[in-house]
Amino acid sequence: MSTPSTTKAETALARTLRTTEYFTLAFGTMVGVGWLIVIDDWLGRGGPGGAMLGFLLGGLALLPIAFVYGKFVRAIPDAASELAYATTVFPTSVGFFAGWLMTLAYLIVCPWEAVAIGKIISYLLPALQTNIIYRVGGVPVYLPMLILGLLTTALVIVLNYRGIRLSARFQNLTTFALLALFGVFTVMGLTRDRVENLRPFFSHSLGNGWSGALLSIVMVLQIVPFFLTGFESVPKCSEEAREGFNPLGFMRAIFLGLGTGTAFYVVIIGVVAALVPWQTLSTERFATAIAFRRAFGSDLVVRVIILAALLSLLKIFNANFLTASRLIFALGRRGMISSRMGKIHPRFQSPHHAVFFCGAATVAGALLGESILIPVTEVGSLCSVLGWLVTCVAFIFWRGSAPGSVPEKRKEIAIAGIGALVAIALLLLKLLPFIPGSFRLWEYLSLGGWIVLGALLWRRPK
């Protein structure tokens, strides 16, 4: 494994996190505002049945991968995560690009959220959708919404610049407040849900050699990795565990985050789709809010949902920004990119240069406006899957040569093998051109641009 190029004292991150913080990080990195803003896309892809089964099967399929991360982080508690794991068995270049792609999987969420906050608030304040300053891909960018997104980005930068303690407290507050509000409007929704509103259960009928149900599920599975990315954020902050932390807490947080996130998505899709005939929502913006408004005829319920969405947005924005900055920090600490990125603030013990890098990237992405929302989910999904695949394969080779009983090693290698097969299957769903919803030109250009940028920044460690 590559070792840091600076001493431990020079790269000492603050050690303050408990299992609770690791859970709110995992769940917080995973669940954002897709359940409000793009649930219409989910229903259009798969219908209520395809969307619910897509997320449920996706969450179950990721359990072996979650297991691999839980085992790896206990053995190698390193902010570099995929990079550190890959370089135990692969060349440094493989480790670098595994870490670089996972950085994009987290970082790409940040401009998504910077754009989404204006989109959410404009639902209550339509006046924000005025003063068009330019268009991207034919989609207008409004000055008030852009300013709101940039101010939110500034808040997240300040939180992370001032260190993990403040950022973790903010994460706990927003996560548990969201879960409380989610419980409230879910119970309310169940009182008005009607099973007949779920019919037809799938959005696609038979044709072109595909089962309608299977095609509906596959269309949702293609974007599930983006919305379930986050359980593997725990290892990125493993160096910041408080003194005396039980390493089993890493595994618990990973599984609890993945399980809670999966359940959240399945429940919200079912509740929303059953409130009104779901076909009437598949082309609506803010389908969740619209469904509750139609079912209850109350703006108060809608305001509760919007409040929950804003809390969720701030939570996922902060969590993904935090995780991305740790990966940039780890790359800088190893000398794989500018070593300045591996510096620690002497007072706040935060990777301040990495924080500013992520802030600049977020601002650049936010300037693209709403045109990035759906394509971003596609690129983020692929990057996550590639990181998972490298990690699972690295674990197979690493565990085979590590000490331990043969039966235990065989069991763990078999689980990692299943995880690798899951990652390959998810990868093929995005790359095979004959599968509906596979990568298009824009997604390939975005991914290629990030890889080229990584190649330009990469410095072979001494």
How would you describe the overall organization of this protein?
The protein has 462 residues and is mainly alpha-helical. It has one domain: Amino acid/polyamine transporter I. Helix content is 67%, strand content 2%. It has 18 helices and 2 strands. It has helices spanning 19-30, 34-37, 39-61, 63-75, 82-86, 92-107, 109-124, 143-161, 164-190, 212-221, 224-228, 248-275, 287-296, 299-333, 352-366, 373-401, 406-431, 441-457; strands spanning 132-136, 139-142. A two-stranded antiparallel sheet has the order 1-2.
Structure characteristics:
67% helix; two-stranded antiparallel sheet; 462 residues; mainly alpha; Amino acid/polyamine transporter I; 18 helices; disordered N terminus; globular
Question: Could you report the average pLDDT, rounded to the nearest whole number?
Answer: 88
Compute the number of helices.
18
Number of domains: 1
- Shape call: globular
Question: The CATH topology, please?
Answer: Amino acid/polyamine transporter I
CATH superfamily: Amino acid/polyamine transporter I
Q: Which regions contain 5 or more consecutive residues with pLDDT less than 50?
A: 1-10
**What share of residues is helical?**
55-70%
Query: What is the beta-strand fraction?
Result: under 5%
**CATH architecture field:** Up-down Bundle
According to DSSP, the number of beta strands is: 2
Q: Taking strands numbered 1, 2, ... along the chain, how are they ordered across the largest sheet? A: 1-2
Question: What is the CA–CA distance across the termini?
Answer: 13 Å
**SSE order:** HHHHHHHEEHHHHHHHHHHH
Strand count, sense and barrel status of the largest sheet are:
2 strands, antiparallel
Kindly name the structural category: mainly alpha
